[in-house]
Design goal:
Strand content: 25-35%
Radius of gyration: 30 Å
Strand order of the largest sheet: 1-2-3-7-6-5-4
Distance between the termini: 115 Å
Number of helices: 4
Shape: elongated
CATH topology: Phosphorylase Kinase, domain 1
CATH superfamily: MucB/RseB, C-terminal domain
Structural class: alpha+beta
Number of strands: 7
Largest sheet: 7 strands, antiparallel
Order of helices and strands: HHEEEHEEEEH
Helix content: 25-40%
CATH architecture: 2-Layer Sandwich
CATH class: Alpha Beta
Length: about 180
């Protein structure tokens, strides 16, 4: 009997090489990058809203006469308006919030509520600290982010104005509330 020497079995590769991994991942990464770039698009403009229906509703349902922001110079745009009130009309508290974009493209917000100033301040800008007297009967506060907050108590009504707008724009908005 003769024994035939056989070659050792060929080493089998399973395709788990670094090159194989790159071949599998590169197309996936290219697709992900293209999707991210496609989704970025252009920035959407901030919408403009008419706050008058919300202002009228807040005044109608509040048992206390609520002041509201008045006319502002050209370039100011209302971007949001909402009324927070319990179910049923004529029961406090009622809170009107209107957000604005100033001519300098900065944010300003006014909150008018028939709740005490401390509660409105805590809910609207928690962590604010008093920073002295503000314009026309307002007290100035500073938020943790360094933004200005103006708060005035007018009888049982609180008026709060805040945002990253300039102090002049915040003062203009605050004094427009009548």
């Amino acid at each position: 009997m003769s024994t035939v020497a056989s070659d050792p079995p060929a080493r089998r590769t399973t395709g788990r090489t670094f090159v194989g991994l790159l071949r599998a991942l590169v197309p996936t990464l290219v697709v992900v990058v293209l999707l991210v770039l496609w989704q970025r698009g252009e920035a959407r403009p901030v919408p403009t809203v008419d706050p008058n229906p919300e202002i009228a509703y807040a005044k109608r349902i509040s048992p206390t006469p609520l002041p509201a922001p008045g006319a502002l110079p050209d370039g100011w745009r209302a971007t949001s308006a909402r009324v927070d009130a319990p179910s049923g009309e004529g029961r406090p508290p009622v809170t009107l919030t209107v957000g604005y974009l100033t001519p300098a493209q900065r944010f300003a917000q006014v909150v008018v509520s028939d709740r005490p100033a401390g509660r409105v301040l805590q809910e609207a800008v928690p962590g604010s600290t008093e920073d002295g007297a503000g314009p026309a009967g307002f007290t100035r506060y500073r938020t943790e982010r360094g933004e200005t907050v103006l708060v005035a108590q007018r009888g049982v009504v609180t008026v709060l104005v805040t945002g990253d707008a300039s102090a002049e724009d915040l003062t203009l908005l605050a004094t427009s509330v009548r």
